[in-house]
Structure prediction request, 189 residues.
Amino acid sequence: MGAFSIWHWAIVLLLIGVPVFFAVRSAVKPSQNPEALVGFGGWLMLLAIGQALSPLRTLADFANSADGYQQLMTLSNGPLVVYGEVALNLAFLALQLVVLVSMLRRSHRFPQLFLLQWLAIPVVFVLDTIWIASILSVPVSQVLAGDALAAPIVSFVLTGIWVAYVYRSVRVRNTFTRTNVSAHPVGAS
Prediction:
């Protein structure tokens, strides 16, 4: 895969910028009846879809890394690198699933867990980079070759926009109110 051209960046900016523009514009307009904004509707529906798909994306990244893992297994200390990276990614997948369940149960903890998931993106990336570089005794610049930084940066920025939405949205505040989620099954209202 070649380098990102200016046109690719322009398309990415449009894909990010247009939804952000409309989200900000709709957030500025006060609702006529804020108490009516409850449940998975509006922008919260888009967030819910994204959160439901995020564990699948992590699993797809696992599948895409399989060839690289096989190549690493033949190197000295390669298995240690692979096991460490898989452990980090499984921990992140577990966090994504916890956030998803808290969202589906409308737990009051969802906003904090969503924020934690956002902060975990760069932490996992940095730990993974340090792990690979130190175990294989290669410079960090070699680990970050190519477009290795692009996906985590885009993911961090996009999720950061959603974190801002979660903490500013009346609908989110009205929806995630359950304090005792064990007493309320997922389908109950």
The chain has one domain: 37-179. Residues 37-179 form one domain. The two ends are 48 Å apart (CA to CA).
